């Protein structure tokens, strides 16, 4: 065990959990109507709790167990069987590696929340998210990070997929799942209501930015120069994408908005995620500059061309960003084109099929969408019996 590595990953684990609680909750919560903000908080918090338990029960073993095959890790480490305080994973206590990866398993299904807010049933959120993490996310983790079929020497050749911190594993899977759920759900009854609290959005985005240092820097799994470089390029990409989004917005619409600026931040962070362990600061600058414009145009395509109500633009920002960053690894000559594109296609098809099947199966057990009256009145009071803002008190 290395003490410095262990100390850094303990910090990184806290930072990644901070991304979901409270970062993502505030970012998403500020974007919805005031009558739905508590439901967004509820979704993010409940998903964090449920994924933590399911990661212990089976998720970690499926992703990182060594008793399965190239497709999954088996159930040998279910409930952390055989893992104690002295067990090691590289230079880290294995229980710490478990906890660090658990925070990734929390935020990935939580990202999908943005696609279905304001119209989805709470029961569906929990059942779908739990099954999706176990049957979609965890196997993909094994394929790319757990020694599975997409690693070096796997089905894509000697050079496997390069995905440092989750461009495919986190952002492509969550983005595609979000797009499919939004398509199946259908649009909200009212798609024109503006964000109720842009201040929340900015605060949440700022928390995500800080937390992303643990997300990308922690993925080095060591306290060394590689972690420092990953942290630095993450920051450069986020800063550049924020400005390129705002500038593009100013050129197109005459005004640059706060919500646009900080959405650009998230686009830059998602895009640098897969490449953060491989690129230098200048390459990060290029990735961020393109990401701010590319993801903004993707928002327009999803909304106006595909006419899909992906409420908070999960696919356009996270999905497109993660896919773009994954491809840029090959563009810069830091990975194999066959592996990068092949990994995107294989995981994309798998995610799409599993997500669609799970939606249909879970909808047989618990309603997918709330009724029209509940949607109109808002989920906070109708589903959870609370209001975010009581002006009479």
From TrEMBL:
GO molecular function, one term: ammonium channel activity
PROSITE patterns xrefs: AMMONIUM_TRANSP (PS01219)
Ammonium transporter AmtB-like domain ranges (all copies): 7-389
Keywords: Ammonia transport, Membrane, Transmembrane, Transmembrane helix, Transport
Transmembrane regions listed in the UniProt entry: 6-28, 40-63, 95-117, 124-145, 165-185, 197-215, 227-246, 258-276, 282-302, 314-337, 343-365
Compartments, as annotated in UniProt: Cell membrane; Membrane
Membrane topology: Multi-pass membrane protein
Entry annotated with the keyword Ubl conjugation: no
Pfam families found in the cross-reference section: Ammonium_transp (PF00909)
GO cellular component: plasma membrane
Family: Belongs to the ammonia transporter channel (TC 1.A.11.2) family.
UniProt protein name: Ammonium transporter
Lineage, broadest ranks: Bacteria, Pseudomonadati, Pseudomonadota, Alphaproteobacteria, Rhodobacterales
